[in-house]
Amino acid sequence: MSQVLLEMNNIKKSFGAAAVLKDVHFALKKGEVHALVGGNGAGKSTLMKIMTGVYTLDEGEILIEGQVQQIDDPMDAKKAGIAMIFQELSLVQTMTVAENIFLGEELKKGIFRDVEAMNRRAREVLEELGLDVDPTTPVNQLSVGMSQMIEIAKAISKNARILVLDEPTASLSTSETAHLFKIIRELKEKGVSMVYISHRMNEILDIADAITILRDGELIVSDAIENMDLEKIIFYMVGGKSSQKKFEWVERAYDAEGEDLLRLEHLKVDEKIKDISFSVKKGEILGLAGLMGSGRTEILETLFAIRTKKGGTVWLDGRKVDCRHPWEAVQAGFALVPEDRRKQGLVLEHSVRDNAILPIVQQVVKGKTPTIDDKAINEIVNRDVEKFNIVTSSINKRIGLLSGGNQQKVVISKWLNTNPKIMMLDEPTAGVDIGAKSEIIHIIRKFADQGNGVILVSSEFTEMLAVCDRIITLFDGRITGVIPRKDIKEEEELEHAVQESGE
Amino acid sequence: MRFKKAGNNMKISLKTIQWNKFMVYIVFLVVFALFSATLADKGFVDSRNIMNILRQTAMISIMAIAGTFVIASGQIDLTVGAVAAMTAMIAALVLERTNSIILALVCGLAFGALAGSVNGFLVTKWGLPSFLATMGMMSVIRGSAMWITNTAAVPIKNFAFNNTFGIGTLGGISVLILWTIVLYIVGIYIFNKTSFGRHVLATGGNEVSAGYSGIKTNRVKMMVFIMSGMFASFAGILYAARMQAGRFSFGDGDELSVIAAVVLGGASMGGGTGSVIGALAGSILMGIINNALILAGLSTAQQTVVKGLIIVIAVALSNFAQKKKR
């Protein structure tokens, strides 16, 4: 194949004492789609952030067309023709397509913006990519998929020759994905190189020319895609992990034949997730495994009444529940540890104490008066701080100042205070250090041991395999399998299961 | 460092102190000391003058109680001045027809509750931003107050009403000051000592997290607007009794003074923080400045300019203090 466009050699990067990249190599050829694969914390995004100038490297070198290239900040990367297409779109929603494409580099006639010239030029770029969209359309009228393609168009118009696509299909429909792939292939013809980060192996096998697999900050393999298949990729991603520290699975005693604590019948969330049925036994920890966009978060949010249920029935403890607001779900006995701790789980400006007591503050009152009992609140929160080993200098400390793990322990403890029957946790250990992780796992087990139910969503399968008694796999909004933990020997099997459409 | 026992939680050091919360008191003391020194011969520190300041600021102070709840919950209420005026009109008209103090009070407060419910409805059910919803309602209510008597003032001849709510004294202290104290005790209690106060702060601090924690955030916002309407209508009753008349122009511009008092008191416009007693300090601080500028012999034009500058500086100071905290 053609020549190497970009090379990253001996890349090392540490954050504090933690080495995130240990001597990684990465080479991207001209006009190549190069898949970058690895589990959470493998170092993919760190490597890409170094390439795009968000982070600077500790050691190593970056070569572009054989020349050493210093990339110290995003401007350097931009000058070198490297552009990142973000998962969270970075377009200005209220501006038109053309205005977004030329944002910061408006074409001018004298001192005024030359709107016509920009629209004309934008139309050319869009046509080149085969995008059927009027450049004068405001971006907020476009679908997520189209917005993403506009971002690509924006990068191309600025002469980017290397595009980094981070999980580009996570929120796209099947037809949008097909359209994106068409554009990727066209760009390839034009000699644009792309780094394609994804967890969806089928897509990678379809679109990529080469693949690099990282694990725990180390380069495992880099090869042409012809030499790979699903088995091999999964093996390289998770295989042989036995040597390293992992969470032990503890078989827990619960009555698998007993009555259902929670039962869902034909739950409908939206047009994609429309027939979900499963149950959770008393004392059981159930895992929902699936790729991003498989519906795992949406199911939890519907049970917690953040999303409106479109159909189906939910039974909790033998009674039909029909919650329309989160507070009704809380009263019914649900608790949700949400995916985005900072935006959904906590009031960052408030103290540990105020956050920990929030769901039950109206219950901690003096006798029959409405006066809140500060002494009792302090006792509850101090007890939680001790019980869950929450590291904070004071319960009056602003929670935003605590580490991720300690913040998450506060979120979990606040829910335990409501005595829920079902605890739902969405990525509870994201951004949490290893010590706090095992503490959180311990708390989850203990909660289930008291006869309660747990639904766990996590993209870290090691963790899921450590705590779950049963795992349901989801693909594109459908349940594709129900696997008892006992039947799973290796993490590969689970990784395999979530990749398949079940057809 | 591991956690410490509850007793240590109260420990305050210069580093952990929340400067933005205390800035208003510091500014208050500095300004007061400054005026006491420079304007002593003009009678600034006379107890009569001090009482005068407190009496003049009573309405703003009272509206700022509910204003603290509104801003702490992340909302804004621009209708308070207009609600006060309309309530004064309603009270005056009811007294003119029936001479019943109870009925005047009930009708006045009911109007405040109604106005608050409409604001709350527009914000929670129709999803209007509170700034726009209450800006529109401000115009509707002020206009209605003008319309109801074709801008004519309605005199109030009920001496008992005027005495109880406006011009009377008890033990030598103006009833306006006494009402202010009573309502502050109620306001501070609700804000600091009930779960409703916590829910208001959580809703303003992060509405999503509050909702995810099982708080009825829409109900909280509704309650806050109703409360704001009722406190404003009570201020309207005080206006009517003090002036012994209902007039459509009462409380003109009060909505902005209330916001200034609440923000000076340590609340952030973004919601999630606030202090009821701080709002009182903010309100009186503005009253002191007003009074001192008059005593100093400044013209109305000069007073307006200096007052504006002092508000900007005071808010900027607490803003800097807040940044330092981060």
TrEMBL record, chain A:
Swiss-Prot/TrEMBL keywords? ATP-binding, Cell membrane, Membrane, Nucleotide-binding, Repeat, Translocase, Transport
Q: Name one Pfam family in it.
A: ABC_tran
Q: Which residues form the ABC transporter domain?
A: 6-241, 256-501
Its GO CC terms are:
plasma membrane
- What subcellular locations does the record give? Cell membrane
InterPro entries membership: AAA+_ATPase, ABC_carbohydrate_import_ATPase, ABC_transporter-like_ATP-bd, ABC_transporter-like_CS, P-loop_NTPase
Q: Which domain of life is it from?
A: Bacteria
User: What topology does it adopt in the membrane?
Assistant: Peripheral membrane protein
Indicate whether ATP-binding appears among the record's keywords: yes
Cell cycle listed as a keyword: no
The GO terms this record gives for MF are: ATP binding; ATP hydrolysis activity
Tell me where it mainly resides: membrane
In Swiss-Prot or TrEMBL terms, this protein is called Sugar ABC transporter ATP-binding protein
UniProtKB/TrEMBL annotation, chain B:
Q: Name one GO cellular component term.
A: plasma membrane
Indicate yes or no for the key word Aminoacyl-tRNA synthetase: no
Kindly give the InterPro entries that the UniProt entry links to this protein: ABC_transp_permease
Q: Where, by residue number, does the polypeptide cross the bilayer? A: 50-71, 78-95, 101-123, 130-149, 169-191, 222-241, 256-272, 304-321
Q: Which Pfam families match?
A: BPD_transp_2
Q: What UniProt keywords are attached to this protein's entry?
A: Cell inner membrane, Cell membrane, Membrane, Transmembrane, Transmembrane helix, Transport
What protein name does the entry list?
Answer: ABC transporter permease
Question: Per the UniProt entry, what species is this protein from, by scientific name?
Answer: Anaerotalea alkaliphila
